[in-house]
Amino acid sequence: MREDVQWMGRKPGNQNRTKTGILVVVSVLFYAGMLVLALGARRLHESSLPRVDVVKPEIIVFGAGETWKVSSALPEEMVTDGTIFVVSQELVNGEIRMVARKVADLLLGQTEDGYREIIRGVDAMSQVIVDAGEELSDGDEVLLKEERADEGD
């Protein structure tokens, strides 16, 4: 085969090098884009989550006369409709996430100084959602407002 033979104005070897070069450039750009998306996915996901304020129940002494008991309690205005959400840490897609859970077995007791006694459904260490800024459903993933502030966003 003669070296000076050209194919459509080019030598046959140059065409393969050009295709290979284009393929390498496209591949590098594709993987760079995928890396950017993978690194930004967490931030993008968290930006769509509702931010919630939480409180822990207070420990209040309830009683009258000679009968007294110490119980967990929440401000009365938080339990007016009987619907309370707590934050639960759950494993979702291999990661620990904060999830809003509706308290299904909530049982309230007496009222004392603006606080409502919690007999069942919320323990003293629970994180009770005070303000979600939007309607929550059982199982919604949430982000605690103080966590976002700690991250410096």
Quick overview of this protein structure:
This protein has 153 residues and is α+β, with helices and mostly antiparallel strands.
Description:
The protein is 28% helix and 37% strand. β4 (85-92) and β5 form a beta hairpin. The model is unreliable at 148-153 (pLDDT under 50). The chain has 153 residues and is of the alpha+beta class. The chain has helices at residues 12-47, 145-151; strands at residues 51-55, 58-64, 67-75, 85-92, 95-102, 107-112, 115-120, 127-131, 143-144. The longest helix is centred in the first third of the chain and has 36 residues, at 12-47.
In percent, how helical is the residue content?
25-40%
Strand order of the largest sheet: 5-4-8-1-9
Strand content bin: 35-45%
Shape: rod-shaped
Helix and strand content put the structural class at alpha+beta
Annotation field: number of helices:
2
- The Rg value, from CA coordinates, equals 30 Å
Average pLDDT metric:
82
N-to-C series of helices and strands:
HEEEEEEEEEH
Q: Report how far apart the termini are.
A: 66 Å
Sketch the major β-sheet. 5 strands, mixed
Give the key terms.
about 30% helix; alpha+beta; disordered C terminus; about 150 residues; single chain; 4-stranded antiparallel beta sheet
Write the layout of secondary structure elements.
Elements: H1 12-47, E1 51-55, E2 58-64, E3 67-75, E4 85-92, E5 95-102, E6 107-112, E7 115-120, E8 127-131, E9 143-144, H2 145-151
Parallel strand pairs: 1-9
Antiparallel strand pairs: 1-8, 2-3, 3-7, 4-5, 4-8, 6-7
